[in-house]
Structure formats: C-alpha cells, structure tokens
Amino acid sequence: MTSKKNHPSVQQFKDFVKKHPKLIQEVRKGNKDWQEVFEDWYLLGENDMIWQQYKDEQSNETKEKDETSKADFMNQLFTAVKKMDMNTVNHHLTNVSSTISTLQGLFDQFGSKGSGQNSSTSSQHPFSFRKD
C-alpha cells in the first residue's frame, strides 16, 4: 500500500497544534474551523501574539513543579546520606551479610538431605517394573 505523505507545511501545522492544545478545544467547540486556523497560522506565522492564548500554561506549570519536586527529593537524599554514620551502616551490612550466609547454610544443609534421598532412590530404580 502506498502511504500518503503530507506537505511539509501541513506537518509543521500539526506540530504547531500539538504545542497549542487549546486550539483543538476551540475547533471542537465550534468557535473556529481548521481551515481558518491554518490560514491564520500560515499568514501570521508561528510566533504571532495571537497564539499565546492557546498555549497550554498548565503543562508548563506542572513541568516546573515536577522539576522542583525532583530537586527537593535529591536535596533530601543528599542530606540523609550526609547525616549517616558510616560505621553504623557498615555494622548493619555486616549483620545482614552474616544472616544471609547463615540462611544459605541452612538451605544447603536441608536441601542436600532431601535431594540426596531422592537422587539415590531414583538412580537405583528409575522405573518401577514388576515381574509376572
């Protein structure tokens, strides 16, 4: 199948509309039609003052709030790392490591008993046949 390629100006207009989502709302409300918007965009250009009212200001505010909250989180994280006593952290890591080693030893001990019995029984008689 052949794909229909848009004229470059149409693609630029689509990108422009994505940057100005309130234009979509105006067209859907019936206040404007796409032809009128396209002609204004083509004649006035993308940087005209008429388009400022159609920019999505909420998304910019939301982005700024997200960036601020990320910066606050990073500051809190760095502050918490600075306040940590490395000797205490090392002590806790050593305790966790020894606990894990003990658990692994227990699993190996109990696991080898169970698997040893199963493997010895299964290797002697893998199939149960009876003589007639």
Give the helices and strands, then pairings.
Blueprint: H1 8-19, H2 21-29, H3 34-44, H4 57-83, H5 86-124
Q: Can you describe this structure?
A:
- InterPro entries: YlbD_coat (IPR025953).
- Pfam families: YlbD_coat (PF14071).
- Residues 111-132 are annotated as: Disordered.
- It comes from Metabacillus halosaccharovorans.
- The protein has 132 residues and is mainly alpha-helical.
- The chain folds into 2 domains: 7-56, no CATH class; 71-121.
- The chain has helices at 8-19, 21-29, 34-44, 57-83, 86-124.
- The N and C termini lie far apart (71 Å).
- The mean pLDDT is 79.
Give the uncertain stretches in residue-range form: none
Q: How many E-type strands? A: 0
Instruction: Label the structural class.
Output: mainly alpha
Count of runs of 4 or more consecutive helical residues: 5
Taken together, the total number of domains comes to 2
Distance between the termini: 71 Å
Biggest beta sheet summary: none
Question: What Rg, in angstroms, do the CA atoms define?
Answer: 35 Å
The helix-strand sequence is HHHHH
Kindly estimate the percentage of residues that lie in beta strands according to DSSP.
Answer: under 5%
Assign a percent range to the helix content. over 70%
Please tell me the overall pLDDT: 79
Overall geometry comes to: elongated
